[in-house]
């Protein structure tokens, strides 16, 4: 958008001559500037000037009358301006002249008037101040006379008036020294009067830890004035009185309410004259022996104190103090927290006496707290608490019981208190099973009937369990077979504890690991005589020798024979637990005659249980008996304090809480101990034993419904926890074995001696770890579970080695020999599954991979024809077709014979051939 040029500005084409000349001058260079050129520019300017004058003259002449009119108007304005200026100058002189001007004269007059007014005000203020000071002086003299004369009530009234007078001070005295001095003197006089009042009060009302002294009159120090207690109390300021009442309430609560309600004491009242002649009233307390103390006496003592205060102190207190009602809350709390709650009995025998005391406390609340102290608006806290006294009693018992359980759980137990529990094992007839393991019925007997051992628990003296006979346990065993038709009506008889003491240290266990198992020779499959760690010191039962089981093949001839006899029955393995009902009879009862002859032989196996869980079970049994006794006694129902809540329910439900506490607390406090397999399996045994014993407790007919359901839940959880710890311990061992075998790096490159040494070290370490685990857990677990655990660990090790070797893409002749040597190391583990050296092992029953692993070690050195022969005979049915094909490809070079063998393998395993009986 272009800039709009105003119309009054000259356009470029209408530039004046001066502008044109100046433009020319600026455009002319110094060399081109001459005299003629300059004369030309001057001539142009002269012409322009003349032209301008001519235009002006023409313009004036064109409208000359208007020009003359405007000229005359301008002259008139000029004259009026001169006149106005003269008048303004005159007015300014009349107003501002220093001598005669109006403004200076007015200012001087006002200044003299203000000075006179200030002098008058100062004189009036001085008069008022002197009058105020004279009045204050007179009042101060009167106050000093009263204070010096000991007339303290009058002095208090006087200084309150003076205090009001000083608050109405004169403005002229603000900041004056005389007024500040007057205030200091007043404060000193007031403090002296208050100090004398406090001193008089302190001698009128004395409350300490041994006595209360109340004097109705007291003489003021350094005077002959005698003041009464009401006058002293009424003269105290509100702030001072509130502070003294707070201190008095605190002292009475601490020394005469809390103390008398929490301890045995004797209260004595006396009235004696003091040295000044005034009568003083005393209440003294003395400690009393707690033996044979009647708890009602504590309430009686507090009643005596309140009656003493109500007679000699409360009537003299000002109504504004509200002191008696302020004692109601501390008294109520002390009655509950210091007396009733701590006095809750710990035995049912003491409960009736305590209930009588509770009734007395309820009457005390109505008569004294709500009556004498006047707390009519407060709630019936003591009566409300008394209405649930049964619940409070049972809650206290629950705390005591759980504390006792906690002491047992955290007790640093040694192996001396452990005992062996029995299980009944049922074997089926050999004709009814092939290689399956025998069935098992858990039937527990607490073989140790000795009292609980001494330990660090502070409550072991007061347990009062006595000697208890072991009882048979109705337990659902392992839950594997609930349909067994077995006659188990005969109760189990207790057996004596094993004379073999448990290991004293882990170091000793490690030191005796090899010797205890007879596995000194790693390649030997024989075992030392079975030491029967689960026996009870009795002679072993004579059993018919079972048929021999197949052993690891050492030659190809034996391998072929194994393929033919695979369906044969191996040696009888130890039993595996299954579920079956167990008898419900005490071990002292005579066994009933069986209804029919036993169709299956019954054996007994034992396992190690800690003394800790036995004490916990005794505690649970005692709690249930206590709950039943409390319910049957009817002591709470017959008492007026009892509520409608079901009696004995809380105590009864504490029993499963003990088991819950054990399951939750012991894995934490015993974490370091449970890191060892021996103790971890022991904890599994403890939980299993508890689960079995809880079944016996569930047979009680006096159980609360909620308690029964919680005990059933505790039984299930204990059984689950036992299984979890058992499986977790085996899992940790399997993880350790896998970590050790990781060092073998898949058994690659065993043709090199360094790699072979590393693999041999890893395999030997696995062997030692399995032996050590077996040695540690052999005396802990029941025989069947022990073989299950060892079998699972050995099977995991063999399966890992099988997986690694079968995954090798190429195996040279040297490597096959080396792998065979490594596999033969594990033959020493067969000795773990031998009880009788004269009988074959039952390793196949617990190690599914054993035969497959044994064949693998021989296949490492077998020829192609040997492998084909074994395959045709059905000896390699444990191998998958893919595994056999991969193994043949890894062991042999690519030849037509290998191709034909692989084609035959791909057709699948031949049908099994059963041997004729």
From TrEMBL:
The name under which this protein is listed is ZW10 C-terminal helical domain-containing protein
- Superkingdom field: Eukaryota
Q: Name one GO cellular component term.
A: cytoplasm
Biological process terms from the Gene Ontology for this record are: endoplasmic reticulum to Golgi vesicle-mediated transport; mitotic spindle assembly checkpoint signaling
Membrane-spanning regions, if any? none
Region called Disordered, residue ranges:
426-601
Q: Which organism is it from?
A: Phanerochaete carnosa (strain HHB-10118-sp)
- Compositional bias ranges of the Acidic residues kind: 473-490, 506-524
Coiled-coil annotation: which residues?
none
Bias (Pro residues) occurs at 571-580
Output compositional bias ranges, type Basic and acidic residues.
554-567
* Domain ZW10 C-terminal helical as annotated: residue spans: 762-905
List the InterPro entries: Zw10/DSL1_C_sf (IPR046362), ZW10_C_2 (IPR055148)
């Amino acid at each position: 958008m272009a800039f709009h040029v105003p119309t009054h500005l000259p356009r470029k084409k209408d530039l004046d001559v001066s502008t044109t000349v100046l433009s020319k001058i600026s455009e002319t260079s110094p060399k081109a500037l001459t005299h003629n050129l300059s004369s030309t520019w001057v001539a142009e300017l002269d012409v322009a000037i003349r032209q301008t004058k001519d235009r002006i003259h023409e313009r004036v002449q064109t409208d000359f009358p208007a020009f003359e009119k405007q000229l005359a108007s301008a002259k008139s304005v000029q004259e009026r301006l001169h006149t106005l200026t003269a008048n303004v100058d005159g007015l300014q002189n009349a107003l501002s002249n220093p001598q005669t001007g109006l403004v200076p004269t007015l200012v001087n007059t006002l200044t003299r008037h203000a000075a006179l007014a200030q002098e008058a005000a100062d004189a009036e203020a001085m008069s008022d101040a002197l009058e105020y000071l004279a009045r204050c002086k007179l009042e101060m003299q009167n106050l000093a006379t009263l204070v010096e004369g000991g007339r303290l009530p009058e002095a208090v009234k006087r200084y309150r008036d003076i205090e009001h007078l000083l608050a109405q001070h004169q403005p002229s005295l603000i900041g004056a020294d005389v007024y500040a001095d007057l205030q200091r003197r007043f404060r000193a006089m007031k403090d002296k009067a208050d100090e004398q009042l406090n001193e008089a009060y302190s001698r009128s009302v004395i409350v300490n830890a041994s006595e209360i002294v109340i004097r109705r009159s007291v003489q003021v120090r350094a005077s002959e004035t005698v003041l009464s207690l009401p006058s002293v109390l009424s003269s105290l300021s509100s702030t001072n009185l509130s502070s003294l009442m707070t201190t008095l309430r605190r002292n009475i609560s601490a020394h005469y309410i809390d103390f008398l309600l929490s301890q045995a004491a004797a209260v004595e009242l006396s009235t004696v004259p003091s040295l000044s002649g005034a009568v003083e009233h005393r209440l003294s307390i003395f400690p009393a022996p707690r033996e044979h103390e009647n708890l009602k006496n504590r309430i009686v003592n507090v009643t005596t104190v309140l009656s003493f205060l109500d007679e000699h102190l409360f009537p003299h207190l000002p109504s504004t103090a509200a002191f008696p009602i302020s004692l109601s809350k501390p008294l109520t709390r002390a009655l509950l927290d210091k007396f009733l709650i701590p006095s809750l009995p710990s035995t049912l025998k003491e409960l009736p006496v305590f209930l009588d005391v509770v009734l007395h406390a309820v009457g005390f609340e109505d008569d004294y707290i709500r009556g004498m102290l006047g707390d009519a608006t407060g709630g019936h806290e003591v009566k409300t608490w008394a209405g649930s006294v049964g619940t409070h009693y049972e809650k206290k018992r629950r705390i005591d019981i759980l504390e006792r359980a906690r002491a047992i759980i955290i007790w640093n137990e040694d192996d001396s208190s452990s005992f062996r529990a029995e299980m009944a094992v049922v074997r089926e007839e050999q004709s009814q099973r092939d290689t399956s393991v025998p069935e098992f019925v858990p039937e527990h007997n607490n073989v140790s009937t000795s009292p609980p051992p001494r330990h660090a628990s502070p409550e072991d003296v007061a347990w009062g369990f006595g000697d208890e006979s072991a009882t048979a346990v109705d337990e659902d065993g392992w839950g594997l077979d609930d349909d067994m038709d077995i006659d188990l009506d005969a109760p189990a008889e207790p057996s004596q504890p094993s004379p073999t003491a448990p290991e004293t240290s882990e170091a000793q266990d490690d030191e005796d690991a090899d010797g205890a198992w007879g596995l000194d020779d790693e390649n030997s499959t024989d075992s030392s005589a079975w030491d029967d760690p689960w026996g009870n010191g009795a002679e072993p039962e004579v059993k018919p020798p079972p048929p021999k089981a197949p052993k690891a093949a050492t030659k190809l001839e034996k391998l072929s024979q194994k393929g033919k006899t695979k369906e044969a029955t191996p040696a009888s393995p130890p039993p595996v637990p299954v579920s079956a009902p167990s008898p419900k009879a005490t071990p002292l009862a005579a066994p009933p005659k069986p209804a029919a002859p036993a169709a299956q032989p019954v054996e007994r196996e034992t396992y190690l249980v800690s003394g800790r869980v036995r004490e916990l079970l005794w505690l649970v049994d005692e709690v249930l008996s206590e709950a039943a006794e409390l319910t049957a006694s009817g002591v709470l129902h017959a008492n007026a304090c009892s509520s409608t809540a079901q009696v004995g329910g809380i105590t009864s439900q504490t029993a499963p809480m003990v088991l819950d506490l054990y399951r939750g607390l012991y894995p934490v406090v015993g974490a370091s101990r449970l890191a060892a397999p021996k103790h971890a399996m022991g904890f599994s045994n403890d939980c299993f034993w508890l689960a079995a014993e809880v079944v016996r407790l569930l047979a009680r007919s006096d159980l609360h419904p909620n308690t029964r359901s919680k005990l059933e839940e505790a039984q299930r959880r204990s059984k689950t926890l036992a299984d979890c710890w058992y499986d977790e311990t085996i899992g940790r061992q399997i993880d350790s074995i896998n970590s050790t075998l990781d060092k073998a790096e898949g058994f690659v490159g065993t043709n090199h001696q360094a790699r072979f040494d590393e693999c041999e070290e890893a395999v030997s370490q696995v062997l030692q770890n399995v032996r050590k685990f077996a040695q540690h857990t052999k005396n802990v677990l029941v025989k069947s579970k022990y073989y299950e655990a060892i079998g699972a660990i050995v099977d995991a090790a063999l399966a890992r080695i099988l997986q690694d070797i079968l995954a090798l893409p190429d195996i040279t002749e040297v490597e096959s020999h080396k792998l065979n040597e490594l596999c033969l190391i594990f033959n020493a583990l067969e000795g773990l599954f031998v009880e009788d050296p004269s009988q074959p092992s039952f390793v196949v029953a617990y190690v599914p991979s054993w035969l497959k692993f044994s064949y693998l070690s021989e296949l490492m050195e077998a020829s192609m024809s040997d492998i084909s022969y074994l395959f045709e005979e059905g000896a390699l049915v444990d191998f998958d077709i893919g595994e056999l094909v991969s193994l043949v490809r890894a062991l042999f070079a690519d030849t037509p014979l290998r191709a034909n063998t692989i084609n035959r393998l791909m057709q699948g395993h031949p049908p099994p051939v059963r041997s004729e009986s």
